[in-house]
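Posting this for the archive.
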Amino acid sequence: MRFGNGQSAAFAGRALHAYLAFVQRTTRFKPAFPGVRPWERSGEPFIALTWHGQQMLSLAALDGAAEVAILTSLHFDGTVVASVVERAGYRAIRGSGTQSPRKIKTKRAIPAFFEMREALREGTSLVLTADVPKIARVAGKGAIQLARATGRPIYLFAAVTSARVELGNWDRASIALPFGRGCVLWSEPLYVRRAADEREMGLIALDISNQLDELHATAHRLLDRRR
């Protein structure tokens, strides 16, 4: 039997969704402090960021959230992730950021930005990666521009597990495995002034990079203490 790309992506999406649900069910998550998750703090929509390669437990981090859209790329793997996102009850927005002006159109960066802006204005929260391929662990300015345009807060999160395989690819991805000890940490909200210029946004991007690194390091330290 031969499958087209759409059928293959749908099949892979079903399999990945089932696997992630199994990992989430079998992971013993450290109890979160009450009121730390964005939707527990206020009713306003938010922008949630984590690193590329560290997003396998994002659905666990979002447990209890409503009206969420997740940015996924136009590549085959993005189509698979979009299938997972929709099976989990969330909305997928297709597109991705880029450091190359030549690739803005092919990656659907501008339409995706406007779609995300409208989603935030209509009350839907967003989840996206802070870094842009293929520059790992360096926050870009896309989410900062969204926060500046909409007035919505940025929250950073780390969702990690002790049971994982670390890869040596460009984004240093972690493959979550079942039966581990998990930890989800959220940052304080970060607001961006509407009058923020390029220099200020650059400083905010640097702060996001540092905070995300520290969140992940803290989450791993907490897991190590529980051994």
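Strands lie at 28-29, 47-50, 68-72, 91-94, 125-129, 154-161, 164-166, 174-176, 181-186. DSSP finds seven helices and nine strands in the chain.
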